[in-house]
Specification:
With 237 residues, the protein is an alpha/beta fold. It has a single domain, classed as Spore Coat Polysaccharide Biosynthesis Protein SpsA, Chain A (Alpha-Beta Complex), CATH 3.90.550.10. Helix content is 37%, strand content 19%. The strands form 2 sheets. The chain has a 7-stranded mixed β-sheet with strand order 3-2-1-4-8-5-9, sandwiched between helices. Strands 6-7 form a two-stranded antiparallel sheet. α1 links the parallel β1 and β2. α7 packs parallel to α8.
Length: 237
């Protein structure tokens, strides 16, 4: 880390039933262990061996007594860490690389005005080289382009690979469920401006692709959050 003061770094990984992939994600992070002061996996009431695998691969595990959703898991991870810079990673990625953490941190370290860094990548769909991230392309990016000038240029607004300054996180409320990623983006832009958000290329991201019927609730949550933040009154659900 550059400068006279080395800023401390926490990596927080929310995980629910990710025993098959969490080990390789943690192994990749630990290859850059000199950059990471706190490595925490928040076990969101998993029914499998996620917690055991995470501990075996060197993480401190925070076990939640009941399922909270991603927003609640990230909040629990923040409460268990104190580092100045926070990196969020997803637990279900099949090809996390050791470069994820340093790439996400670099803009925060090199430019004081940057408050958030979003990863972007190519997302394969099954056997096709691209086409993944359907909710991102068909819901998140269009609504941002229509309602939030400048944020339509964010390639992966729903990316779980995100880095922020803790000072930013202390000033915003984390959303729950599927809206967490777009809420972080909107709230950071509102607080610090669009130019305080940077993007970094993380290459190709492979993970299990959800069936279409599981994507509708995700898209609904994201639309609801974006419209509500814009001031549209929606009926309770």
């Amino acid at each position: 880390m550059l400068g006279e003061h080395r800023q401390s770094v926490a990596v927080i990984i929310p995980a629910k039933n990710e025993a098959a992939t969490i080990g390789s994600v943690l192994d990749a992070v630990r290859q850059r262990s000199h950059l990471v002061d706190e490595l925490v996996v928040v076990n969101d009431h998993s029914a499998d061996d996620t917690a055991t695998v995470a501990e075996h691969h060197g993480a401190r595990v925070v076990n939640l007594d009941s399922a909270t959703g991603k927003g609640g898991a990230l909040l629990a991870g923040l409460a268990e860490t104190t580092s100045e810079l926070v990196v969020f990673l997803d637990a279900d990625v099949l090809n996390t690389t050791p470069d994820y953490v340093p790439f996400l941190l670099a803009p925060l370290v090199l430019r004081e005005e940057i408050q958030m860094v979003k990863g972007y990548y190519v997302r394969p769909l099954h056997d096709m080289p691209s086409g993944g991230g359907r909710v991102n392309e068909l819901t998140a990016r269009p609504i941002l382009s229509l309602l939030y000038p400048g944020l339509g240029e964010i390639r992966q607004p729903l990316a779980g690979e995100t880095a922020l300054r803790r000072s930013v996180l202390n000033e915003i409320a984390l959303a729950s469920a599927y809206g967490i990623e777009i809420a972080l983006l909107l709230d950071t832009a509102t607080q610090s401006g669009v130019n305080a958000i940077a993007q970094v290329d993380l290459g190709v991201r492979r993970h299990r692709n959800r069936p279409l019927e599981e994507l509708s609730p995700m898209a609904t949550d994201i639309l609801r959050l974006a419209l509500t933040r814009f001031g549209v009154h929606l009926p309770a659900h």
